[in-house]
Amino acid sequence: SARTLRGRRNRMPNPGEETPASDCSDPESVPCRPRKARQGQESHDGDVPSLCPPQLPMSSPPRVLSMAELLETAQEVSKMTIAHEIVVNRDFKLQEVNFSPNSLESRVKETLHKAFWDSLKEQLSASPPDYTHVIQLLQEIKENILSLLLPRHSRLRNQIEEALDMELIRQEAEHGALDIPNLTMYILGTMAMLCAPVRDEEVQRLRGVTDPVQLLREIFRVLDLMKMDMVNFTIQSLRPHLQDHSIQYEQKKFQELLVKLPNSLDHTTEWLHKAAAEVSASSLSSPSHPEVHGSPAPLLLGAVSRSSATASPMSVLNQGYMNLLRWEPRIEKYPETLLMDQVRLQEIQLQVNQLTIIAAVLLVSSSVCGSTLFSSPGFVDRLKRVTKALLEGLPHTRFQAALLDISNQVHQEVSESLLQLGYPAFTSDKSASLKGQIRSIAEEDNAVRSVIEQRIHSFLSLHLSPSAQNSRSLPKGLAPIQEELLEVGHRFGSVIHHNRQVYGPYYLAILKKFSSQRQSQKQE
């Protein structure tokens, strides 16, 4: 029979599973495992790559684009964003969209689907049955299955074409000889052969569905999942290639965008000008110990010329990157060159703010409770868990209310620990002092909070330069949050390093132009 199945040998891997090595000489075998990606050429000491300077647009009024140009630009930005996400986010994958059961989208979708499948049921129940829509569905199923095949699967493709010959199916339908159960059994067998192991149970369950309409509906649902698996497998396979070429690709696409939208670096220019002003002001006010807004000297990575008080491009860029950890989106516009990483950087900013509060609470508790209680087994971990749980998901604007609850919970933990260890309870004055000092951490100018924030930012600034990897010693008072801080530093450094590699030439061009303008103003 043309619909006889062959052995299960063309399965795709589970979502997120690496493809096992296979014999490349067999045209019907699964793809060979892609080789490990080559590491990109990193610049010396974290400098930007040695590329030709980009062509920055001249100052000009905003250009009005036609609708076609807008759509084309949006499509190019979308492609660039997806490629960037695949490279930067190793967990990136497509996922099934699940609307809320009571949402408008869910109700509309369910109503339309029910109307379609009810209509199909009526057509098949008619005498004689109307197979018009069934044939269309079988055609779509065939196309979906063929889309799951790789180019080398020519033999299997021919088998499917022969088994699901649409011309033959139409002739069978015209003569009332269409065998839907036999066709669906072949389809299920082919799906079982092609699907990832994680979908085996889904496909096997369909074999027990006897209603042909319900079975066709479920086949489409599972095929959608299989197509999503294939897309995610393709993303995983392409990632090494994209990592090798992502910098050149993003630069090329951004340059094309600049040609169409010459004002696409306005906010980036403002961001760098602000950073340059801060670095210059810091070097003038305190040449021997440069600080910027309470941030320590390592943030500038020693790139200020003391003789001329002229900041190097690297110091300005590092200051700009660190300013992202204090960004006020309601006041400042995000730099265009960082928009694709804005969500990631805002998550890092939120986590840094939370770690600042946690470390400050622990430092205050330590000074009030003393070393004896603070060194008791599990005490610090309990305070940390309580504080972290009460801050989870809260923006920094709600820290004041959260610290009210945190102070009460910390006091309760302290009281219970004192009781368990047989120590006298705190006096009312000491309890009030503990609660008051914790609640005062919400104040922006709180001394403890400022010190902790400065130390955290100092540590994170070291992740901006690959050359500082061996000097990332943890500042005093941050030991309880060491694990979280190292993870945040790694994420922050990875995002910044990729951004510097892609847009470094643009940043250098902007800063060079800005420096020339300042020199001209001084001469005048």
Automatic annotation (TrEMBL):
It comes from the Eukaryota. Residues 1-59 are annotated as: Disordered. One of its GO terms (biological process) is regulation of sperm capacitation. One of its GO terms (cellular component) is sperm flagellum. Residues 1-11 have a biased composition (Basic residues). InterPro entries: Tcp11 (IPR008862). Belongs to the TCP11 family. This is T-complex 11. It comes from Chelydra serpentina. The lineage of its organism: Eukaryota, Metazoa, Chordata, Craniata, Vertebrata. The gene is TCP11.
